[in-house]
Amino acid sequence: MADGNSANGKTRSRFTRRALLAGAGGGVLAAPVLAQRLIGDGMIDLGLPGGPSERPLTPRFPGKGEMIVHRVRPPVLETPMAVFDHGTITPNDRFFVRWNWDMPTQINAAAHRVAVGGAVRQPVSLTLDDVANAGDHVDVVAINQCAGNGRGFSQPRVTGGQWGNGAMGCARWTGVRLKDVLAKAGVADGAARVRFAGLDVPMVDGAPQFIKSIPIDIAMRDDVLVAWGMNGEPLPLLHGYPLRIVVPGWFSTYWVKMLSTIEVLTGDDDSYYVAKTYRVPTAPVTPQDKGFETVPVSVMPPRSFITSHADGAIIALGQPLELRGIAMGGDAALARVDLVGAGLELPCKLGPDEGTYGFRRWTLRIPEVTGDLAQIGVRATNANGITQPAEQAWNPSGYARNVIERINLRAQ
Ligand SMILES: Nc1nc2c(c(=O)[nH]1)N[C@H]1C(S)=C(S)[C@@H](COP(=O)(O)O)O[C@H]1N2
Ligand SMILES: [Mo]
Question: CA within 20 to 30 Å of 146's CA: 26, 165, 369, 395, which one?
């Protein structure tokens, strides 16, 4: 939720054109080292069923701390789960990265423009200053999660990047409201959707452009931003410098990076990444089903994770056990987290609330360990009463996984 404007002089001057131009990490990305060299660093087992489960783990991707490398070009980097044990905000240098096509490794911020057109009264071309001056500056703490996060655990396997659960992160995003940027052009009557394009570089001839749209009522929300700040820093190039869309509560496929075009549509969006992909079935399907009805993937369901212990960890028999982790409500506030499994059903204590759309810490103290804790997990419930399921409904792209994630702890 937009937790208040920061329209005071201090925040305003912090993201002046100079800051946007000269920001740490903004503007240029060093050439990524060769995949071959990354593989030398070490491997991490993601526990993916039915296929190769190990991936390179390296601290040497430009601009990043230790990350799991799925691809170097375009960059597809996953956050190791251990990072989520450190706090509810994911540091920029440990934040997962995903580009569908290639990304420019250099941006000329002074020359950058955002074109606002389509069904508007007056098309405009905005500089970064124009965007920064379009309205109040707003901070939102929100989780950016790939719709395919955890897809690698799908059974049967599905196509697409075989992510573990680290294609998510939570940051404090700073920017202006999208509706204030739209107001510079004036939204015309009959507007149905707002579509975004970035500076993506196609990698093959005829590749569809990565453009995405959201319904106009979502675009007009007070907490949907054109953002330039990520955890108090200018957006790193990998995360969309100089500007990206932020849609709290929605999967990050709509959070278009390196924003260059905003287009108001009066009808449906028939572009590839809305009409053909990033879609989920409207009713349960099996791997044999074909031709079923689908809708664009949109809001996130609740999820939760144990971060204090990995699967197979040893716990001390006869001793108290402190468990902890993170949880999210998705498109509604988190209401509760319960530990389930091993014959237990225990409410967890929730940590500070940093906003509807952020991660929240949970903790649980079990007074005495009396034996192994087999197949335990946490189950988050949001304010709309949506609860994580015990079984994952399968879909052909493995989107929106939110089954209760279970681990085994051995007492000795
Ligand atoms: N311009 C642009 N924006 C994009 C994408 C892209 O390929 N190009 N990928 C989207 C998808 S699918 C994801 S998961 C997120 C990843 O955001 P991040 O790299 O900042 O973590 O960016 C979204 N925005
Ligand atoms: Mo994604």
Answer: 26
Contact in structure between 137 and 10 (CB atoms under 8 Å): no
Taking residues 56-70, report their average pLDDT. Answer: 93
Annotate 132-164 with three-state secondary structure.
HCCCCEEEEEEEEECCCCCHHHCCCCCCCCCCC
Average pLDDT over residues 220-245: 97
The closest ligand to the CA of 98 turns out to be 1
Distance CA 87, CA 255 (A): 23
- Helix (H) or strand (E) holding 183, with range, is helix 178-185
Which pTM value belongs to this model?
0.93
Ligand 1 neighbours, Cβ below 6 Å, are: 95-100, 144, 146, 198, 200, 210, 239, 252-253, 255-258
Q: Residue 96's closest CA among 3, 161, 14?
A: 161
- Are 127 and 236 in the same domain? yes
Q: How far is the CA of 88 from the centre of ligand 2 (A)?
A: 20
CATH number at 277 reads 3.90.420.10
Spatial separation of the C-alpha atoms in residues 297 and 294, rounded to whole Å: 9
Atom of ligand 1 lying closest to residue 147 CA: 14
Residues 141 and 278 in one domain: yes
